[in-house]
Each structure stands twice: as structure tokens, then as C-alpha cells.
Amino acid sequence: MNLDTLLSYEWGHMAPEFIILAVAALLSLLDLFLPKSYNRRSLAWIALVGILVAVVSLIGLLDSKSVSILHDTFRLDSFGKAFKLILLIGAACVILLAESYEPKEGLKEYRGEFYYLFLTGLLGAMVMTSSGDLITLFVGLELLSISSYILAGMRKKNPGSNEAAMKYVINGGISTAITLFGMSYLYGLSGTTNLKEMSGAMSAQAANGQFLYLYGLAFFMVLIGLSFKLASAPFHMWAPDVYQGSPTPVTAFLSVVSKTAGFVILLRIILTLFLTMPGDDTQKLSFLETHSIYISCLAGISIIAGNVIALRQRNIKRMFAYSSIAHAGYILVAISALGYFTFDAVWFYLLAYLLMNLGAFAVIQLITDSSHSEDIADFAGLYRRSPLLAAGFAVFILSLAGIPGTAGFIGKLNIFMNALMTDPGHFVLASIMIAGTVISYFYYFGIMTQMFFRPAASTEKIKVPAGIGAVVVLALAGTILFGVAPNTALDFLHNNFGSFNDFLK
Amino acid sequence: MDLLNSYQNNYLIVFVFLCLGILLPIVALFLGKLLRPHKPEEAKYTTYESGIEPFHDSRIQFNVRYYIFALMFVIFDVETVFLYPWAVAYDKLGIFALIEMLIFVIMLAIGLIYAWKKKVLRWM
């Protein structure tokens, strides 16, 4: 390849990725060469500025057409832009949480690494959103996973954190191996790693029942490997331990950014490859229609298992791990009931989930850090100690539970309508979703009773650091705004991204 | 079903190799036992360590730094493995490969700086 072809690519469309990469490299060098006495906390602000600049450059790219670089190894289509926006906002909030994170024993010389590993993880997630090639998708997935493994074990002297990192590495390694095995089938049968070409080859081969059988195996393995990443039951066993042991900002990162990235890669692979492929010899139904029962099962089990097990938890982070498993189930309902509004429903739910979950984790981090314990009883009397914080946390919990007036309700309603609008409607999944939501009221409102009706153990006022305060205010504004006027987000989505027409082109 | 069968038949050769792998040591050791003279001696039962008298337990803790050195070695070994074919085919690959290689080397250089500043390269 000569220089002219190289320069003919529109590298400007990779600007958000380049910015994050440059800031991560800069931070790692700064962290190495700054004197020991220097307080690494200020590096978080550089990371935040980097992410914000990346957001601005992404917004500048919103109007541009879909762009493909180097034979689709990087493609910026409306799908990529829409989800990259969510990832960047989530990461910015996580960096703010990380800035004010102060574990009991301190982070000492690892504080610098703490910040730039978030950026490399974010970079991996961003690569996953805009890639049309199995190899770059996989590299993105690994970049995100490996950064998260290290982040989970950031509190080196803390046994819980070590356990989390170890379990995460082993489970993540197994899931990656399964995904990769499925991908190897896809590559071996179609002879290409480019998703578009692969989809063409698959449609041509699908008339043969034996190819169909092997593609079914590949679909199954990729789906299972990726459901580890989503933490959907029955592949969720790592999530509670990892969420509980990791530093709180990392837990927030895993439950928001990492989960979003998991859904993005799932949509990207499954929809591009299996949507157009015929599902049986008669060629009447598409592959996804004949096999969506697997996704439905994952969704149903996740909702039930997540919500029921969460009832018994006394540890707040563990409870939120199970609640995040249930939320992964809700989103899987939208994917399994594939229809015209699936993208909108998933995107909106992920946005709402980002806001309410990050807001909740900001409060959780503040309370658990100040009381050095993660028991739900630590929230007792939060209303007396800090009424504003308690009110904010209550809004996030109401939104997670899906009470009208909050973004979580609209997100759930979208998914619910989406499940009923398809033909045939997914009535079983819809009813499981409602049952799960009702069960979730018990444990969500359990926290509320603690906050508002139990006496406080101490009357000490809570000092809110700037970073956490900013996240709470931002998440609160978003949760209420998108709950009262959801069209602000949906119109933004439709005006800028249409109906994701360029996804398959 | 032809394709599936021929696909599964490919595993036949794996099975043959598996059988060979299991049989070979069994047959070799069995033949050796048949052929060799049987004269047990005390010295024959000691562990062979390149002619040195074995001393203390063989299961000891190695310094963890060996491991990190091995990792560093592997990284830069792989780097050379990539650099050689690139250097040989440089004329054909052109400027694009040069830029790619520069990015690759710079990333590894940052890694080396990291290892150096974190005192990985110092023994103790």
C-alpha cells in the first residue's frame, strides 16, 4: 500500500479514538516521570478533559455519512456514533467518581494507573462500537477486558479486590475462549473476517442444512461467550464477587461502560451476520427468528435470577450486581423481540441505565467510603444526615425500579412495547419482565426504608466531594429530564441517526 | 449429511495420533524393560542432575523477578520476530508498513519506559 491510498482514508473520523489513545499515552508517561511527591489526583482532570474533547469531536462528526477505513476494520456509522456517545458520557462520569475515590488504605503509587486504565478500557469499547471486522472487534473486546481485570485488582493489599481480579481473569478468559472458538467457526466456514462479506457468504451457504447446523454452533458459542461479558444469567456467576470486591468506580465502570460495550458487540455481530441469513431450508424465516429463543431464554432467566437473588443481599454493591444482571435481562428482551424499534429501545435503555446507575454508584461510593463498610444498614437515616443526597438516591432507585416520571420507566416501557409489537408478540417475556419488576420493588424499596425511616447510627453531616456532586447532579438532571420529556433523547436519536439505515450497508 | 460426516472424519486423524501418542511410550518402556539387564544398585536410585550430587529439596520458591524478566524477554523477542520480515520485505511494503512499525515500536518503547521506571529492570 502506498502513501496516497493511506492518506486517502478519512482519518479525521477516528479523531475520538486518537484523542483517547493520545491522552492515555500522555497520562502514562506523565505518571512515570512526575516526581513521587506530586499528587496524581490531578491526572484525573486531564483524563476528563480528554474525554470531553473526544465527545466534542464526535459531535462534530454526527452529520457525516458512514465512513469505512481500511476495508471496514474501522467503520463509523450511525450505530457506532450513537453508542460511542453513551460510552464517552459514562466514562466521563466514572473518571469523576475515580477522582474522588479514596479507599481506606489509599491508592498510593497506583493512582495514576487507575486513571489511564479507564481510558484504555474506554478505547477498547469504542473500537468495538465502530468496527466491521471480527479481528478488530475481538482486539477491542480484549483491550476492554484486560484493562478491567487490572482495574478490578487495583486495591493491591485488599483481599476482596484480589479475589475479584482473580475471578474476573479466569471467567473472562474462559468466556473469551468460547467467543473466539465461535468466531473461528464463522471464519472457517465463510473464509473471511469482514462482517459484510461474511454475511454474504453465509446467506449463499445457508441453503445447505449442514452449513446451517455449523453456523448454529457458531452462533451459540459467540452468544454464550458474549453473555459472560453482559453478565446475563446463567453466565453471571462472576458478577457479584467482582462487583463487590472491585473499587467502587471500577464497579460503576463494569456495570455501565463494560455492559454497554457487551451489548454493542452482540448487536454488531449477531445482527450483521444472522439477520439476513435464512434460518431453515425453506428460507421463509431468518436465522434470528428461528433461533431467538436462545436469547429469550437468557433474558428470562436473567430477569428472574437477578431479581430473586438480589432480595437476599445485605451488601449494597452485591445487590447492585444482581440488579445489573436483571437489567441486562431487560435489554436482552429488546434484542430477542427484534423489531423496528429495537435499536431505539436498547439505546434509550442503556442511556437511562447509565444515568441512574452511575448516580446510584456515586452515592454508594460516598457512603461506603465514609463508613468503611458496604452493608445496606449504613444507609440508615441518610435522610437525616443529608436530605439532598437521600432525595437524589431515591430518584435513582425509583428510576431503577421503573416508576413513572423517571428515565428508567420510559426505557422499560419502550422495551415492553417493543416486545408486544412484534408479530408474534413476546407475551411470556413481557410478563416475566413485569413480574421481575414487581419483585425488584422489594429490594429497591428496602433501601428507601433504610434511608427515610430508620434512625441514623451517626448524626455526622456528609461532605460531598466536587466530583461525586457533579455526577449526582448530572445523573439526576438526566434521569428526570428523560423521564418527563423522553422525546428530547429520542428526537436527538432520530434526527442524527435516522433509523440506523447504514448499519448493514 | 456428507459435509458433516467428512467434517467429523477429520477428527479421525486426531484420534489416530492420540492412540499413537499413548501407545508409543507404553511400547517403548515395555520393550526397554524386556531388553535391559536388571541389576538394581543404590546409586541408580538417586536423582540424575547433570552429574552433580543432588542436594536439598527440588521444590523451592524461585524469585518472582525471573518471571518478569521472562515476560520482558518474550515481548522484545516477539518484537524482533515482527521486525525481521518487515525489514526484509521493506521495499514491497512501503511507507504504510513503516508507519505501522513506528507505532508498534513506540508503543513497546512506552512499555519499556514503564518497566524501567517501575524498577523491573533492577535486580532487587
From TrEMBL, chain A:
InterPro entries: NADH-Q_OxRdtase_suN/2 (IPR010096), ND/Mrp_TM (IPR001750)
Location of the NADH:quinone oxidoreductase/Mrp antiporter transmembrane domain: 131-432
Signal peptide start-end: none
Enzyme Commission no: 7.1.1.-
Enzyme class: translocase
Subcellular location: Cell membrane; Membrane
Catalytic activity from the UniProt record: a quinone + NADH + 5 H(+)(in) = a quinol + NAD(+) + 4 H(+)(out)
Record membrane topology: Multi-pass membrane protein
Domain of life where this protein originates: Bacteria
TM spans (from-to): 15-34, 43-62, 82-101, 113-129, 135-154, 166-190, 210-231, 252-271, 291-311, 320-341, 347-367, 388-407, 427-445, 466-485
Keywords: Cell membrane, Membrane, NAD, Quinone, Translocase, Transmembrane, Transmembrane helix, Transport
Listed PANTHER family: NADH DEHYDROGENASE (PTHR22773)
Family label: Belongs to the complex I subunit 2 family.
Function: NDH-1 shuttles electrons from NADH, via FMN and iron-sulfur (Fe-S) centers, to quinones in the respiratory chain. The immediate electron acceptor for the enzyme in this species is believed to be a menaquinone. Couples the redox reaction to proton translocation (for every two electrons transferred, four hydrogen ions are translocated across the cytoplasmic membrane), and thus conserves the redox energy in a proton gradient.
Subunit comment: NDH-1 is composed of 14 different subunits. Subunits NuoA, H, J, K, L, M, N constitute the membrane sector of the complex.
UniProt protein name: NADH-quinone oxidoreductase subunit N
TrEMBL record, chain B:
Catalytic activity, EC: 7.1.1.-
Transmembrane region(s): 12-31, 66-87, 93-116
Subcellular location: Cell membrane; Membrane
Broadest EC class assigned to this enzyme: translocase
Gene3D superfamilies in UniProt: NADH:ubiquinone/plastoquinone oxidoreductase, chain 3
Catalytically driven reaction(s): a quinone + NADH + 5 H(+)(in) = a quinol + NAD(+) + 4 H(+)(out)
Subunit structure: NDH-1 is composed of 14 different subunits. Subunits NuoA, H, J, K, L, M, N constitute the membrane sector of the complex.
PANTHER family linked to this entry: NADH-UBIQUINONE OXIDOREDUCTASE CHAIN 3 (PTHR11058:SF9)
Name of the protein this chain belongs to: NADH-quinone oxidoreductase subunit A
